[in-house]
TrEMBL record:
InterPro entries: DUF2179, N-reg_PII/ATP_PRibTrfase_C, UPF0750_membrane, YitT
Subcellular location: Cell membrane
TM spans (from-to): 12-31, 51-75, 82-101, 107-127, 139-167
Membrane topology according to the record: Multi-pass membrane protein
Keyword Acyltransferase among record annotations: no
KW Oxidoreductase (keyword) present: no
Keywords of the record: Cell membrane, Membrane, Transmembrane, Transmembrane helix
Principal subcellular localisation of the protein: membrane
Source lineage: Bacteria, Bacillati, Bacillota, Clostridia, Thermosediminibacterales
Record-given protein name: Uncharacterized membrane-anchored protein YitT
A GO CC term assigned to this protein in UniProt: plasma membrane
Length: 283
């Protein structure tokens, strides 16, 4: 029980930190420069410049009907973490509204605002939290139109918000908003998937036994034999699977081609590796 309570405290602390970072991206970069990077925050930015409505409280007010609809149609689809994340994001946005604007350069504001927003949301998403808004709207849209996935729903909503910003402000600012949205999405992926980048290597060869022995002895890396069948010869083959760090790629390729110059090697990126020789994670 103590371990579970400790985990919950850490997760909610991350929601607090993520909400604060996300709020800073709005008040210090995006909102002052009229960059409405999708979602309810983007819609609130447009409404702020049209009617002088405070961004934080506007986001909260817009979230209320979404919460009600989500509870009615989705039931348990709305969790406590979503409620906490939404409240904190709006609260911190208002608390930091008086913070100094870092830059009025549109490109710098777009890039750094997108990065900060991605970091904040990524931290929240990593502990299965949410800030409501677009996520809830997309879930409700998916409930009524099952052919539209939640990811597609988010894209559709963001598209219309940015189009609205283009009509309200200018199409140039709308293009900057697309850049901010793209950057924040990529940063969210990095935060979600982790920084522990590695390479997964598949080796198809008639000398898999010799290659595996050299990998085990020279690199001290584990590997796995996969059973396969040649598509042309229909003969049984062993395929070696090995996960290595980026710095070990050259060494592995040398081992393979010194042993079997005709070997077929596939190398691709792995964003997070958990296990012996890399990292462990306890949920």
């Amino acid at each position: 029980m103590k371990s579970k309570a400790k985990t919950l405290i850490v997760e909610y602390a991350q929601i607090v930190i993520g909400s604060f970072i996300g709020a800073l991206s709005l008040t210090m970069f995006l909102v002052p420069n009229k960059v409405a990077a999708g979602g309810l925050s983007g819609l609130a930015t447009v409404l702020y410049y049209l009617f002088k409505l405070p961004v934080g409280w506007t986001m909260l007010v817009l979230n209320i009907p979404l919460f009600v609809a989500a509870v009615v149609f989705l039931g348990k689809g709305v969790g406590i973490k979503t409620i906490v994340g939404t409240l904190l994001f709006s609260l911190f946005t208002e608390m930091t509204a008086g913070f100094p604007v870092v830059t009025t350069d549109l490109l710098l504001a777009t890039v750094y605002g997108g990065i900060l927003l991605g970091i904040g949301l990524g931290i929240i998403f990593r502990v299965r939290g949410s800030t409501g808004g677009t996520d809830l709207a997309a879930m409700i849209l998916n409930h009524f139109i099952s052919s539209i996935s939640i990811g597609q729903g988010i894209m559709i909503i963001d598209f219309f918000v940015i189009i609205l910003s283009g009509i309200t402000f200018s199409w140039e600012l709308a293009m900057y908003a697309w850049i901010a949205l793209f950057i924040s999405s990529k940063v969210i992926d990095i935060i979600q998937e982790g920084f522990n980048y590695a390479k997964a290597v598949y080796i198809i060869s008639n000398e898999t036994e010799a290659i595996s022995q050299r990998i085990l002895s020279d690199m001290q890396r584990g590997l796995t034999f996969l059973k396969a069948e040649g598509g042309f010869t229909r003969q049984d083959k062993n395929v070696l699977l090995c996960v290595i760090t980026r710095m070990e790629v050259s060494k592995l390729k040398n081992i393979v081609y010194q042993t079997d110059p005709r070997a077929f090697v596939i190398i691709h990126d792995v964003h997070e590796v958990l296990g012996e020789g890399f990292t462990y994670k306890n949920d």
